[in-house]
Amino acid sequence: MLYPSTVVTSEKLPGPFKTEHIRELWQACSVAHQSMNTPQHIYYQLCDCAVDVMRVNYDNVTKIQYMSTEEAKKLATIVKLNCNEWRMGG
Length: 90
Hints:
The chain has one domain. Helix content is 66%, strand content 0%. The protein starts with 18 loop residues before the first helix and ends with a helix. The N terminus is likely disordered. 14% of the residues are buried. The longest helix is centred in the last third of the chain and has 19 residues. The chain is mainly alpha-helical.
């Protein structure tokens, strides 16, 4: 079994995201990729990146949880553009 490397950063991301919300966002990403049989070493890094992108682009979790379909498509595009490295296998 491969484990992703741990990346430690001192970068403070904007937004008042509570740890619980960050975990929920990461878990939703994880479940989605597991259902597509994405290898663990890829979706771990991809979901880390996706959550970071959400935190940088939105000032609170409510905007993410209740966004319209059109807004969700825009977010998916932003995540793909920023996290393509992990989608392609690191």
